Amino acid sequence: MTPTDLTITPRDRRFGRDRAAARHWLNGDPIATAFFNALSVTFPRGEAYFIDSVRAFRDGAPDRLAGEIAAFIKQEVVHSREHLAFNRQVADHGYELSRLDADVVRVLELAKRRLPIVSLAATMALEHFTAILAHELLRDPRLLEGADPEIAALWRWHAVEEIEHKGVAHDTWVHATRDWSGFARWRLRSLMMLIATKHFLHHRARGMMDLLRQDGVTGVRAWGGLLRYALVRPGILRRVAGPWLSYFKPGFHPWSVDDRALIALVDSDYADARMNGPLPSAA
Description:
This protein is mainly α. The chain is about 65% helix and about 0% strand.
């Protein structure tokens, strides 16, 4: 279960507004850069979908969960704002992002046709995916070693908050399905993770290949480079395979792994950005 002493704290921080990073901002490596850039393109629309999916079940939630949902929404709003700003920087380097964005729109339009409880299950699955990726980013600083400092700060900040709110969609799901049998919960939860993972891997790989084509990296060099980056060195997808599988355990909860110690490693860098009160502006 979610730790009773957990506090979800939005941090209103702006990154890299007054400077331009290099086109290949992660060690000058087009493959590593494409990996993160393609992820970032998905976040503004994806996180708006997460917000809507969770907010649909906020009414009638226990007070504590309702407060966590409100904090989750604040965090996701700021994530969307900052990744929109980052994506504009990516586009300023001459990358055409419209195809990647259109891909996100198509997938989300299909998702929005489903029942709200199915959208919540999809959100829960993807929130677990982002949380285990965030865990690796904070656990191994080498993943962002050599990155532009402001962009590295953006990704670490995002990772902190993804870990912090990783139980909200799950706890909302548990509340929304409180009258379901354990098997019915497990079946839909597991099915949506399989579907979400298939779409995530397929569409993100396609987006990364699109960005690499724009850098003149194609064919075996592109696919081989991406597979090596994702599965071998540094192998970030290989590293999250075990935590991904844990999702299918009966009785799974995101906070079965309490990784708040990882947050503590970097949270002091964002202490001045801690926020209370209304949502921040979108500027």
